[in-house]
Amino acid sequence: MERPKPEKTYTHLKFPDDLTMTDIRLIIKQCIQQNAIEDDDVRGFAAAYAQAKRMFASGEKFATITADDLLVMILHWAELTDPRNKKGFRRVPAGFANGKFALEPAKISQAMETLCTALAEQLRDGFSTDPDDWGRPPLTPTDYFKEFEEIHPFEDGNGRVGDLLWKIAMQRETGQWPKKLPPKVFK
Length: 187
Known about the structure:
This protein has 6 helices and no strands. By secondary structure, the chain is an all-alpha fold.
């Protein structure tokens, strides 16, 4: 009978000093959930997480955020999370475990511009509870997270970068940096 492998604890890693133990647990949990379990995976996501939290946890950055700023940050966090993302958006098709496919590569750039424009506006102005001009309910942080995941703009690290976007949006909506992972948006 095969013995189960012990879980990695990552106690040997040096995490950014401004992260709390809760942050570190969430980073490790997200990496394990995404099967990004090598030390470099955890280290890279921790660096991106720390940057995102430093920039947005106080709430001050929301007043000046633009779509371009947000896109540059996403690209940077994606590269920190997985160095293969240095080349930018995914150029190959991507499929999911449920048999569905992510947005085709040729449409990623435009989809990300649209997403960043809408999200930056809500980060600046706050999340409304009112329907839009067409009567549709307002988008929530989870809606933006799901949209990002469906676009799946990078070869790897999408779940981790999406986690950061969700946390930033939740910070704006609730005034507190989340102490949990984003909800599961796919079955």
